[in-house]
Every structure is written in structure tokens, then in C-alpha cells.
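Reviewers asked in the last cycle whether our approach scales beyond single polypeptides. To address this, we selected a multi-component target totalling 596 residues and predicted its structure end to end. The input consisted of the following lines:
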Amino acid sequence: MKGKNSAGFLVLIISIILIPFLVTNDYYLGVLIFTAFNCLASIGLCLLMGYAGQISIGHGAFVAIGAYTSGILTAKFAWSPWIAMLCGVLLVIVIAFCLGIPALRLKGHYLAMATLGFASIVHIVAVAAVDLTGGPSGLVNIPRLDFFGYVLNSDKQYFYFSWSVVALGVYIAFNLINSRVGRGLQAIHGSEDAAASLGINITSYKVQVFILSAVFASVSGSLYAYYMNYIDPGPFDVSYSVLLVTMVAVGGLHNIWGALIGAIFLSLLPEFLSFLSDYLQLLGIEYQPDYDTLVYGGILLTIMLFLPEGIFVSLVNAIGFVKASMKKLAGKKFSGGSAGREQ
Amino acid sequence: MSNSILELEMLRKNFGGVVAVSDLSLHIEQGSITSLIGPNGAGKTTIFNLVTGFLEPSSGQIRFSGRIVNKMKPHTIASIGIGRTFQNVQIFPKMSVIENIMVGRHLRSRAGIFYSCILPPFLRKEEKRIHEAAEEQLHFLDLAQYAHTPAGSLPLGNQRMLEIARALALEPKLLLLDEPASGLNARETIAMGELIEKIKQMNITVLLVEHDMELVMDISDYVAVINFGRLIAQGPPAEIQENKDVIAAYLGE
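The resulting structure, written as C-alpha cells, was:
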């Protein structure tokens, strides 16, 4: 990492260290831990969407596979959580490979269709395979994570751990983007024909980055399972996959920071809305939780219509604009009339 | 032409009922500059796409350095030493100029996705080598001042230069240039001609499609004239200019 990205990374690390001192409420700390899981899955998805130009509407399924592999192997077979997490990753690699090869050989968005179908199948299996997954009533007794016997018991510990994994994910993503492979991916996004003419195997690259993004999702799922100690199919339906895509799109497709900010924004929005509803009640306005969907839709529509590059890029542009206008103003003030003549 | 690097034998390409290239045989001499000329729609770009694997021949054979390359994919063809540019410039607009060229070093470097993610020390060395090689190309093509400009914001002439720089970074044995001078002004066209001659001196065989006859006659060792997918004449520029069939094809008689 270099320049602005390493500065951003520093801000991320400092925020991670400081936040548990500022947020002492366990509920909000929990919300931030969930945010970390979403961030992790979004970073992976951002690599696929923003850098390889492919959409997966089934990433929730990879999160689910990570969660269920971890859950089943630890709760039913008493495996080590770490080994179970690794098994989830390996399983997801195999599945993403099998799914990606046929879908990514074709030009166009066939991957979106394949993953959408796959997400439905995974959800159905999670509900119906009662013996394995516990069905709709879920899977209990999933242990907490431990480091050589040191168990991550408190939310604060888990906050630090899960956000460290996010930071690691960001680091990996930036390494990849600025590498030979990352340039190859960006090249494919720019012009597939030109990329191929320079010796880049397009199908192979797309499959590889799809697998990588699935691994991010799987780890996110495993961390979720170990935090909740309980999983059921509810959170892993297709709408969760769509939410992940939305997080990446809202934040900004072509930027890892964008994906991170999109994930944080959409993870915290429900909390903010319920917070806001208390005030609205004081003003005599009856705010129902059902209205959340409406507000969501409105925000998404606004962003897609007016900030198509996502929140992050728009924010950066806005800051640049303010800086430039400040300079202009300052220039006029100090140099008086002469600045006017120059223009 | 005894020592040929590229040989097309009875090459044919049909698009449905349309015959774009019709039983065309052509040998390209090692180390030469050969131009393909002909009216619009004669099948020149189709020939390029067949040679570089973007299209598969309906019949016939393409041999490069003695190897049959008919069924190879574009990325494999690049790996055996054929570079190309495109008629409508295909740069990577959002990447910087130097990054564009660094993509050209793809086949001369090896890092896979796993090592790229964790960035071990030997990879940093490879990155450095890629960067140095790209800078060399930048200087060779006089693009050094634009190194960190997004490629999409360059003027067209420089974009064409960049596309060639990127293809040269591949270190090809054969370079296919598809209308390198189209859209360029007179001064830029002269610079392009000088560049193509410099590329020849680097012992790279150049095959080009071009409409600027002055440029073609100036730099080519051989000219091949195509019309309706057939080869109608072939030889040194001076001969071609006298050829009756060629004059007929161009004047429409």
C-alpha cells in the first residue's frame, strides 16, 4: 500500500483501537461486530464486482456455507473452530470453482444468474436438511473462538478480533489490486480483447477472483457463527445476498474503501432509523419500523440516481470541490483585485 | 520469401453466407515490414483477428514459426510471441499510462493470485522489474511525461503510441498494427512511421493494415493487396504502385 491508501489504513487501525473505548454499550458494540462481518464479505464482493466486473447475487450463500460448515463441524463433531473455519474455506473454494468455470467462460452476466440460483438452493438445503443443519429451528452449541485456550468471551475482545480480520482483508485486497494479478483484473474490466491480446487468460482470472471473493464471504460466515453461537437459515436468504451487492454499489464499486463505507453505512442505518424514530415520536409523529424499508428504498434510489459512483467517490469529490473553492476564496481575499484580472 | 515467420495457407473465414476471407495464402518474411492494404471491408481486420485467435478460421491453416496456431486462444497466441493493436484503440482508460504498459509485462512475470495477496519479498522484486521494464518502454515512446496520467485522458495520437508501447512490453516476435495512423495528424503520422521502422530494427516483424498510402509506400518492404477477401497482388511498394489490378480495385474499374 502506498500514499493515500496507507493513510486510510492508518485511520482504520486507529478507529478500531479507539471505538471500544467510545462505545461502551454492549448492544452497539454487537452491532459493530455484525458490521465487521458485512465489511469482510463486501470487500471480497468488491474485488469481484469492481475489479473483475462480474456480479454475484449469491454471496450470502457463501457466507452461509462458511457459517454452517463451522457450526456443524464444531457443534456436532467437536472439531477445533479454526480447523472448521478452514474446512469452510476449502469447501467454498471447490464450490466457487465448479460454479465459476461454466458461468465465467461466457461473456456477460451469467455469473449473476448462476449465483442467484445457487443462493436459493443453499437456503433451501439449510431449511430442509434438518438432520444436518437443524432446519428452521437452527443449530445450537457452536463454541466461541479461542487462541490456544484463551477464549474470546467478551464483545470487546470479539470486536477487536473481527475488525482485525477486516483490516487484514483490506490489506490483502490492496496488495492484490496493486499486483500483477490486480492489474490483469483491471485490464479485463477495461477491455477484454486488449487484455487477451497481452496474454491474460480471462476466464482463469475471473474464476480466481470469484473464488477469492467467496473465501472472504466464507470467513465472514464462520466468524458470525462463532460470535452468535447459534445459526438458523433466516439471515442467509437471497435478500442478504442482494444487500451485500447493494453495500458494494452504494459505497462505490471501484474502491475497497467504498465497499467498506457502504457496508458500514447500510449496517448502521437500521440502528440510526430506530434512534431517529424515538425523536419523531416526541414530535408526535408515529414512526413504524415498517417504514424502514421505505427509507431504505429512498436512500438507495437517491444514491443510484445522483451519486452513481457511490458515496465514497462522491465524498472525495465533494471534499476536493470545497478545497478548491476555499482556495479560490482565499486567493481573492489576499490578492485583491489582481486575481480578478488574471481570470 | 524463403524465411517466413507467418504463413497463411488457403485461409478462409465465412460469417454465415458471407465470405470475409477467401482461400488466402500469404507468407510474411521474418524481420520485414509488410502492409496489408485494400478497400474497406476487404477482410484485412478479419485476417488480423484470425491470426491473433480472436476468430477461428473456417478452413485453411495459420502457421507461426512453423507452429499451427489455428485453434489457439488469444492469450495463448500472445504467449508464443504475437502482439497486436486494435483499429479502435483499446487502452485501459482508467489505469495510468505506466500501469497500462505494466499489464503488457504480464507474460514476462509470474506472480499468481495467492502470492499477490500476501506480497512476499520476492514479489516486490518482481514488481520492481515490471516497473523498470515499463519505464523503459515509456522512454522509448516518449511518453514518460504522462506516466501517471489516466490513459483515457490522453489525446488519440498518444493513445495509439501507448497501445504500441504496451504491445512492445510483451516482447513479441511479430507485431500486428491495425491502422496505427488513422486519426493522426501529419506530424504524428511521420512520427508513427519512424516508430515502426525503429520497431523493425529491434528485429520485430511488423504486419500492418493502413489506409495512409504515403506511409505504407514509405516504410513497407512488402505490400499485399486484398480485395473481397482475396489476395490480388503482392510485392515491393514500387511494383504494387504499377499493378493494374490494384489500380482497378482502388479506382473501382
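Chain A touches chain B through 28 residues (CB under 8 Å). We regard this as preliminary and will revisit it once experimental data from Aim 1 are available.
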